[in-house]
Design brief:
The structure is a single chain. By secondary structure, the protein is an alpha/beta fold. The protein folds into 2 domains: 119 residues, Rossmann fold (3-Layer(aba) Sandwich), CATH 3.40.50; 99 residues, Orthogonal Bundle (Arc Repressor Mutant, subunit A). The chain has 8 helices and 11 strands. α7 packs across α8. The chain is globular, with a radius of gyration of 18 Å. The termini are far apart. It binds calcium ion.
């Protein structure tokens, strides 16, 4: 019998928190929850969760700070942030701090459950893969360990960044559009302005790691009107 996947819900609005717990339990997950930010961080760092659903505005400690603290010690922990629908800044800040995905409030439960399943599926299938990707400029990426080297420098990647790299590498003969990345890597059924920007933020983060000159990319190139293409030496 397979072990249930564990989800931590950090949300201070009790109606939302209780609703999320019920929905996740209904879908077969083992669920833990708290309404306090400080308690949420303690649980996140000491418990073993397959996924953390993290609100931003919380008493004690906000979601950004929690996400940041988690990423200092664990860059692979899957995290989905709950954001206000109207606030692009929330979303961008959350993604910069290393959240894997976000769901805008008010959210549809069905959509959230799909996003959760998509994040969990990728974080688990990623473990089985093993591959070294060689890029121009002497950059090597160890996909299994979310690590890499650029000369003497050690590179660290998030699970999401590696998912993007792996997808681009598997399709390196052609440019991949933002919509395709959103669909294949994030599991979105359709795009929106905000979600397209999600891709661009991650591409910018990747370029700072896998380019010798991030301003003039040689490995992860933009193909005008078509998307992004990874040029591999391997
Ligand atoms: Ca809140």
């Amino acid at each position: 019998m397979s072990k249930k996947l564990r989800i931590l819900v950090v949300e201070d609005e009790s109606a939302i928190r209780d609703g999320l717990v019920d929905v996740f339990v209904f879908h077969g997950y083992d669920v833990d929850s708290t309404g306090d930010g400080t308690d949420g961080l303690t649980k996140a760092l000491t418990g073993r969760y397959d996924l953390i659903v993290l609100d931003i505005m919380l008493p004690g400690m906000d979601g950004y700070a929690i996400c940041n603290e988690i990423r200092q010690v664990d860059r692979t922990q899957p995290i989905i942030m709950l954001t206000a629908r109207t606030s692009d800044e929330d979303i961008i800040q959350g993604l910069k701090l290393g959240a894997d995905d976000y769901v805008a409030k008010p959210f549809s439960v069905a959509q959230l459950v799909l996003r959760v399943a998509a994040v969990l599926r990728r974080s688990r299938t990623g473990i089985a893969q093993e591959q070294i990707i060689a890029l121009g400029g002497g950059i090597e990426i160890d996909t299994a360990n979310l690590a890499g080297r650029r000369g003497d420098e050690t590179l660290a990647f998030t699970r999401r960044e590696m998912d993007i790299l792996e997808y681009l590498y598997a399709n390196r003969e052609r440019p991949v559009s933002r919509d395709e990345l959103l669909n294949k890597v994030w599991g979105y059924a359709r795009d929106s302005g905000i979600e397209t920007r999600t891709v661009d933020i991650h591409i910018a983060k990747l370029r700072r790691k896998i380019e010798v000159e991030p301003g003039t990319p040689a490995n992860l190139i933009t193909v005008r009107g078509a998307g992004y293409r990874l040029r591999s030496d391997g």
